Model the fold of this input.
Amino acid sequence: MYKPITLKDIAIALDLSPSTVSRALRDTYDISKKTKKLVNDYATLVNYQSNPMAAGLRSKKSKSIGIVVPDLANSFFSQAISGIESIAEKEGYHTIISQTKDSYHKEIEVINHMANRYVDGLIITMSSETTEYTHLQQMHKSGLPIVFFDRIVDEINTYKVVCNNFESCYKATMQLIENGKKNIAFLANAPQLSITKERIGGYKAAMTDQIISCHAEMIKFCPSGGSDYEEVELAIKQLMALDERPDAIFVAGDRLSMACLRAVKNLDIKSDELSIIGFSNVDIIDLLETPISHIRQRAFEMGQISMTMLLKIIEAKYPINDFDTKVIDADIFWVEHLSV
Done:
């Protein structure tokens, strides 16, 4: 059975005290260069690996952070995680990543598990099923550092990182209107999510500013966020069955956009009948058989900022009470044949 080399083993081999070996490996000022070289050379020879759990007990830090997202297959979330890890790695932190599959109960299970693993903090975006936040409020009250990104919780006072959802949707809707579209439908995620409220707000504001009626039947909610294809197809069928059919659809979610495209194709709806713009961070979207105009969030940057904010809380010498929300611009890409 494998037995890892310990500080004590090195101390015995070199006839030094364990504390001297420890200080030499940590490069402290009170150990001579000769002793440091002796210890480090031998540690390399025997493939010594430091024990992060023991170090964590001394510093009261595990040097690990938890990341909780709804769906790892979603390009936006995977890109945000890459941003988080790019900062975490530089600062010597490891990441523990879990997905909730948009389940409220799974979210509670995952967060409790991470807290019991003694993570130093959490970066989280909410699942679409979550409508109350007691589990997070309790963790936050107990002192666990938490940063929200994308789908945030207003009721918890901490750092948050979001896309400029309202402005992006306002601009995109205005562009559709300028391109001659008047009956613009809106396909959204779960209604209680912060991103849904902000994106619908931008859409409605643009319609109002252009004195275009915004009818309730033109807004459809898909709480599964695109993971349930039948839900999305039904919403498209209902929209296309209206007396005044939409001439454009604004799709307010990454995975929702892909499901909408699939439904439009399966229902044999032509691009000259229906223009589509949707949120999407899929790298190959311009290679699709029917490319769509899309809003791309700066996910990697959002991840980097989220991790930087979490480190501010973790490493603060005094409690932080003054938090802010960082709003990141998004980029809008128009496909020529869908913009007329």
In short: The radius of gyration is 25 Å. Residues 75-90 form the longest helix (16 residues).
